[in-house]
Design a protein that fits this description.
Strand content: 5-15%
Distance between the termini: 5 Å
Shape: globular
Order of helices and strands: EEEHEHEHEHEHEHEHHEH
Largest sheet: 8 strands, parallel
Number of helices: 9
Helix content: 25-40%
Length: 285
């Protein structure tokens, strides 16, 4: 029997430069941070060898997509120049694609130039935390490249976003702001758009849980939803624990996201997330 939620997911595949990913089963996106200051210390990779080892482990554990980032977007993180971001990202992208040519690579950037160079180096998805708001040429670049685009909700920049976490109804306002951007992307004929409500980006912990509780409301836009809550403050601060102990809590919120229609989970812990999805599938078939 089909999942009781499957009729909400009108978009059932992603075309990643000729590699077709099915969304019939939720996908796992593994996080590879080529940064010295990512919020979770366990995800920081400082050399190409470390990147390749981590990529190999994640692929062996069943990652459907690897998400490579060279700009730390944790609250209050230092700004990084385009040149520095490229210097971190492009060698890592090229090395991964050389070692694992069948891998599907996503590039985590809000800069159009970085996105374009990363796609030229082998990436096939653009993951933009700013939803196009920090680079006015991003949407045109995505349209030109014709790769799947993850449209995340954020206000301001990583340096200012915490001061902008003010909503009367966080779900409706996130939805309103996303749908304006979706309309722009569709006008440019961007075919594969994925929605990310932006847990932790210009959101308080209470806002994050309200978004999770009502995540299914985002499905009105008839686009796949990505949930990125792995080891974030909404988990470890709510439980008054450290990030290193936040795997169980992450698993719980990811399970809730699956039940509410998330099509992609962006995580640090691939193996455990694949197990979560396997058990979730037992309840929906």
């Amino acid at each position: 029997m089909e999942s009781k939620d499957s009729f909400f997911r009108h978009k059932s595949t992603l075309n990643c430069r000729g590699k077709i990913l099915s969304l019939d089963t939720p996908l796992v996106m593994g996080i590879l941070n080529v940064t010295p200051d990512s919020f979770y210390a366990g995800s920081r990779l400082s050399s190409i060898d470390e990147v390749l080892q981590k990529a190999e482990t994640m692929l062996a554990d069943g990652a459907d997509v690897l998400d490579v980032g060279g700009y730390s977007s944790r609250p209050g993180a230092d700004d990084v120049s385009t040149e520095e971001e490229l210097a971190r990202l492009i060698p890592a992208t090229e090395a991964i694609m050389k070692a694992f040519p069948e891998a599907v690579l996503s590039v985590d950037t809000f800069r159009a130039r970085v996105a374009e160079e990363a796609v030229a180096a082998g990436a096939s998805i653009i993951n933009d935390i700013s939803g196009g708001n920090l680079d006015e040429t991003m949407f045109e670049t995505v349209a030109k490249l014709q790769v799947p685009y993850i449209l995340m909700h954020m206000r301001g920049t990583p340096q200012t976003m915490n001061s902008l976490a003010k909503y009367d109804d966080v779900v409706l306002e996130v939805l309103d702001e996303l749908q304006v951007l979706v309309a722009k992307l569709k006008q440019l004929d961007v075919k594969d758009i994925i929605l990310d409500p932006g847990f932790g980006f210009a959101k308080t912990i209470n806002h994050n849980f309200e978004l999770l509780n009502r995540l299914e409301e985002l499905r009105i836009l008839e686009l796949p939803i990505l949930a990125g809550m792995s080891r974030k403050s909404m988990v470890y601060k709510a439980l008054d624990i450290g990030q290193a102990d936040a795997l169980v809590g992450t698993t719980v919120v990811n399970t809730i996201a699956l039940m509410k229609g998330a099509a992609i989970l962006r995580v640090h812990d691939v193996k455990e997330t694949k197990q979560t999805i396997e058990l979730y599938k037992k309840t929906t078939h």
